[in-house]
């Protein structure tokens, strides 16, 4: 790796986010991890490195529903590292709410919207001046194949992900001249807790979190002239 980056990573306590953070740590990057409960982070290289008191890993409280926490996390990261040149959005919620939801379903839809769309929006806005100052910023967002098409009766979740794809496009447009490059990663089934109830596909046949971590590591190495905007990754064949 030519140059280590200072990366903000949300959703790093488990699943895809944790795999991405662990790979980024192994690649030599400096990490600022936004966690709902930093004290509950499971044992492993992230917690161990943070415990050693080095400047490699900062653990900071972060609740995606609260824009003030996005600002506080960014400010703490700048106070520790003095710069931010990468932002990786992995935090998100899943929902099975359909089109004809029962009375009271509005609350779940609004919460999904707040976490899946507004969380990344608030955090990106807070980190934007630092990304511009870097001159070579990167924003990587875990979207989903549900941001590309709608399957079955799911409605609330894909609506939030389609909106997130639009946000990614807007970030790309806004940041292009400042050297910021944006990538939306759109996986299908990934072997995480979210997919644990899937019976039609064995876990070993799914995309693995480590595979997405490897792709993210490669994205961080690419020059601005070669960063793709959209990566669709699917472990099953779907009609085009």
From TrEMBL:
InterPro entries: NAD(P)-bd_dom_sf, Sc_DH/Rdtase_CS, SDR_fam
CDD domains, per database record: HetN_like_SDR_c
UniProt keyword Oxidoreductase, yes or no: yes
Organism expressing this protein natively: Cyanobium gracile UHCC 0139
The keyword Oxidoreductase is annotated on this UniProt entry: yes
Keywords: Oxidoreductase
Protein name listed in UniProt: SDR family NAD(P)-dependent oxidoreductase
Top-level lineage group: Bacteria
Family assignment from sequence similarity: Belongs to the short-chain dehydrogenases/reductases (SDR) family.
Lineage: Bacteria, Bacillati, Cyanobacteriota, Cyanophyceae, Synechococcales
